């Protein structure tokens, strides 16, 4: 006797979402800044900071909200991006609060502006707004491929954002750089948001034109050189970056935009020649502009010999103090709250905040921070590799490349490796524009990674398919 049973096709097994892993890592990302905050308070005042538990609870709530939004609306997103960004943001607030306790900086602010206003509470407010924007991006942007429709609109939007700082009555000249606009008493740095908007244009444009740009006309010294008519796009972006450098005196934004385009161009075409041409054009343009732009020239001189003009140039003094901060930190550092990086002056909590890391946490702390930044970049590149559409691949690699370039130019500038650019260290430096823009960047990468890792839907069962008969002996 036998039993005959009917079976149907089994659907695809659902992949793990890794949200519990993210939650566990997020707990560490919240606890570590709280311990750092307590350490700073004990080192400077000999007691726990009075607002430690309120800060810790508020930061935990913000991280929990971000996690809930990701769990609900980006179920299959990369589990590392949110904890890494949270860790950096939390430690950034601690570093800013530590510098707020400096009597030197308090007295400097009183002499320069008539009063001292602590930056850490504002940074927490900006963090809350950034988490709200992070959630809004994930709620509104259901599919990153929708952004491809706005390729040329995004180009116009990026140009508007770049032009705003030089508009009379709207732009503000801050220590020689025209990268800010003032609206209703608030200062905004449009270039931080322009890097995301212009990445949409680059991704959409290169997705369509990559075949033409990949064609080579001749081989020279082992490189396949592009056709003359295909040099137009890179010449246009090069000219735009030079205009930013000339009119805004902003070396960092100029290098960031042009470098991001060259990286995306290389990924789209796989032509090494574009990298070589981009580097030559970038160096050539910077040399030409530095020959007549005094603000850029001062930073180049400070890079070449910071101690040669230490007593006469503010740029040289800042770079010199920064280099001495890294040198005095040694391998393990002086300890939280034990350094003297506040000697740098007004930009200690913004452009030069990484110098505080170098002095108080030493080489080990610097490498730990760079490792966290490197992990964010690696997850962004992994997201680009996993993306199933060419627009998503280019968009993710563009955002990751822009993030990596910003880390390089800021860390290289404060260490004396390259001329100082005036950009801010993502998530660490004081400033609302940087925090808001970088949380939006993380949200977009999370959305792309969710689309890339989401399992394909199981095919609908066909009514015409035959039932499989399984005969089991009784």
From TrEMBL:
Its main location: membrane. Keywords: Cell shape, Membrane, Transmembrane, Transmembrane helix. InterPro entries: FtsW/RodA (IPR001182). It comes from Streptomyces erythrochromogenes. It is a multi-pass membrane protein. Residues 453-474 are annotated as: Disordered. This is FtsW/RodA/SpoVE family cell cycle protein. The keyword Iron does not apply. It is found in: Membrane. The chain crosses the membrane at residues 23-46, 52-69, 81-99, 123-141, 153-172, 192-208, 228-245, 251-268, 275-296, 361-381, 393-418, 424-446.
């Amino acid at each position: 006797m036998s039993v005959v049973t009917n079976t149907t096709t089994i659907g695809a097994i659902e992949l793990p979402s890794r949200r519990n892993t993210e939650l566990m890592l997020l707990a560490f990302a919240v606890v570590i800044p709280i311990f750092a905050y307590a350490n700073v308070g004990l080192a400077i005042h000999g007691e726990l900071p009075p607002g430690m538990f309120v800060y810790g609870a508020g930061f935990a709530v913000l991280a929990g909200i971000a996690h809930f939004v990701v769990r609900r609306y980006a179920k299959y997103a990369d589990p590392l991006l949110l904890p890494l960004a949270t860790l950096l943001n939390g430690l950034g607030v601690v570093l800013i609060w530590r510098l707020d306790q400096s009597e030197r900086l308090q007295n400097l602010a009183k002499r320069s502006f008539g009063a001292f206003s602590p930056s850490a509470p504002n940074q927490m407010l900006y963090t809350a707004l950034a988490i709200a924007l992070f959630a809004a991006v994930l709620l509104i942007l259901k599919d990153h491929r929708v952004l491809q429709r706005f390729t040329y609109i995004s180009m116009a939007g990026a140009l508007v954002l770049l032009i705003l700082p030089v508009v009379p009555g709207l732009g503000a000249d801050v220590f020689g750089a025209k990268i800010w606009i003032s609206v209703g008493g608030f200062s905004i740095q449009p270039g931080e948001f322009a890097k995301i908007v212009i990445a949409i244009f680059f991704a959409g444009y290169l997705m369509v034109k990559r075949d033409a740009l990949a064609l080579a006309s001749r081989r020279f010294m082992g490189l396949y050189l592009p056709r003359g008519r295909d040099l137009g796009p890179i010449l246009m972006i090069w000219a735009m970056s030079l205009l930013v450098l000339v009119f805004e005196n902003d070396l960092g934004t100029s290098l960031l935009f042009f470098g991001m385009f060259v990286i995306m161009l290389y990924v789209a075409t796989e032509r090494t020649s574009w990298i070589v041409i981009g580097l030559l054009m970038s160096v050539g343009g910077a040399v030409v502009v530095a020959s007549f732009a005094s603000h850029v020239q001062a930073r180049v001189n400070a890079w070449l010999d910071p101690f040669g003009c230490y007593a006469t140039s503010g740029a040289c003094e800042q770079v010199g103090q920064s280099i001495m901060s890294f040198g005095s930190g040694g391998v393990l550092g002086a300890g939280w709250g034990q350094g003297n990086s506040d000697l740098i002056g007004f930009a200690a909590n913004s452009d030069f905040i990484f110098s505080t890391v170098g002095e108080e946490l030493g080489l080990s702390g610097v490498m730990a921070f760079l490792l966290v930044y490197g992990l964010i970049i690696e997850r962004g590149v992994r997201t680009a590799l996993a993306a199933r559409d060419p627009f998503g691949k280019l968009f993710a690699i563009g955002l990751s490349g822009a993030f990596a370039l910003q880390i390089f130019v800021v860390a290289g500038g404060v260490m004396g490796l390259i001329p100082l650019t005036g950009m801010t260290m993502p998530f660490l430096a004081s400033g609302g524009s940087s925090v808001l823009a970088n949380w939006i960047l993380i949200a977009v990468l999370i959305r792309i990674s969710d689309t890339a890792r989401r399992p394909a839907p199981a095919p609908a069962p066909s009514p015409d398919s035959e039932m499989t008969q399984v005969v089991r002996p009784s």
